[in-house]
Structure formats: structure tokens, C-alpha cells
Design goal:
Layout: H1 5-17, H2 26-35, H3 68-86, H4 102-121, H5 128-144, H6 153-177, H7 179-182, H8 192-195, H9 200-218, H10 223-231, H11 233-245, H12 249-257, H13 260-269, H14 274-296, H15 300-306, H16 311-315, H17 319-340, H18 345-353
Amino acid sequence: LASSWPRLSACLFDGLLTTPRDGDDVVGHRQQEAWGARRRYSGGHPFQTPTWGREKDEESSTSTSASASARDDRVKSKRERERETTAPSATTTTTTTTAPTSSQTGRSSWYRAHVRPYMQLSRVDKPIGTWLLLWPSWWSICLAAPLGGPLDLGTLGMFGAGAVLLRGAGCTVNDMWDRDYDRQVERTKGRPLASGALSQGQALGWLALQLSAGLGILLQLPPTSQLIGAASLPFVVAYPLMKRITGYPQAFLGLTINWGAIMGWAAVHDGLEWGVVGPLYASGFFWTLRYDTIYAHQDKRDDARVGIKSTALTFGDRTKTWLSGFGAANVACLSAAGAMAGCHAPFYGGVAAA
């Protein structure tokens, strides 16, 4: 690593130290330097062994008599030299990088071809959706805990794993329904089903695997929580269809993604206290309407073109007024849930900060 610092410095600063020649446009020269066009360093990556003086300064040629074929030859020759300088030298005695072995390359390509499409289908690379599903359940579990008593970390952990699986299953169902629509929307056309990286059959098998694992977690919860969890599946399957039917699909998402607000309490007490979980579920519902309406605005032009409905299109120029109302209702319902659960001042301080 120490032997690499001179190379790194040369890569970064050699172009800045190059002085303009007589007759050069100084301003243009500095701009080219900023873009790296006149950098003399030709060693490829700064942590590889550099090769000095192998690249001629072809930008300095002012001859106007060179033919087009000669220029093409120079460009081709330059590209060949660049490939030579970036390739590892057989005579280098001191190396600072290690080329990946064939087994490493094979594992990487195997992951890209066989694993990554499934991870993208479940949005593992975008965990915010998992958090949005998980937080209402954790709020409910915390409110269900005895005042001053310890939290049930095992239940929190099971709901965490369940949120990853159920969110992945929901995204899989969504993409199976929306494959043809996703191809027409700029943001979603690269999704595995829309791009053809996975087939519908593969997605169905992946969905079955996620639901089976989720069922294994659900069966470890009390009976009441099991029944409530099973009742959420029709919402998960039907939600993607709502954007074709109603201008308020975000409302249906609010009913679906906040189901954990009911399940969490039942997982602790094997029963329900609607005076607490009712306002808590409602607060999550209004919260979802707020954030998902904002989220839907990025796709509203494509949605209008392909016939997808959303609250972003329904509210239009009145969106900010509706968002203010949703935010007020969210805070009011969350405060009501805390009051019914017997919470004290720190709870309301947190609500006010939020």
C-alpha cells in the first residue's frame, strides 16, 4: 500500500502540473486538465504498476495535413497502448493488486446470473420497504409490553424476519401482476420480470419459497396472531390490482402494510385491545397515505400514459393540502393510541418530534 502512494499522487496531480505550451488557450487548457484530457499518467488504475512515457501527447499535434485514415490509425494505436498499460505486466516484480482468480470470477458471475435477479425481485437491495412494514409491528409490540417491563426480543426478531419475507413476497406478487406495465415505465423497466431476467414460473416458485418460510415463522406465534396474519394474505395478493381499479390504491396499501400494528399486540397478549390497536392501525394508515402519495409523484407521467391510477394523479395540485391532513391525522391517532396504552410524557415527546 505504501508503494502505491506515489502512483496515486501521480495519477491525481500530474495533469495539474502540466503547463500550457506557447500558443495554447490557457482557459481551454485548464478545462481539459480538469476533465483529465491532458493527463500524462498512463498507468491505468493508480494502484497498478505505472508505465511512464509510453503515451505520446497526441493532443499537441497541430498538423492539419494528416488524412482521416492516419487519424484512425493513431486512435486505434492509442487504444491498444491503453490496453497494454492497464494489463498486468509479466515482468513486474512488485505488484500492488491481485487479479481475481477464475473461481472468484465464476462465483461472481454465478451470483449475477442465478441469485441477484431473485434478490432484486424481493427488493433486498432497497430495504426501506421492509422498514415501513416492520415499524408498525414493533410499535405495537412495544405498546403491548408491560409498563417498565422488558421487551420480548424474541418476538421482535421473529417480526423482523417475517417483515423481510412478507415484503419480498408482496414485491414478487406486485411484479407478477405488473410485468407488462413495468416495461413501459422508466423507473421499473429494469425489474427482473419486466426485463426478462426471470420468468413467471421462476417468480411463482420464489413466491412459494418465501411464503413457506413466512409460514414457518407465523406458526411460532400465538393462535390469535396466526389467524390475523393469515387474514392479511388476500390484501397482499389483491393490492397490485387496486391501481387498475381505483384512484386510491395508496389507501389499500395503507390497510395492507400496517397489518403488523394489529398482529404485534396479539403476539404478546394472544388477544386484542382495540382501544390501542385501532388508533395505532389508523395512524399507520394515514402515514402510508402520506409517504406513498409523495412516492407516486415520480411516476405520475408514466402512470397517466399507461393507465395506472394513483393518489398523485387523483389529488393533483391539491396534493400538499391532502398531505397536511394525513400528517395531522397520523399524529392524532398515534397520540390516541399512546393515551389508551397509558403512555407518559416521553411518548408524546417522541410523537411531537416526529
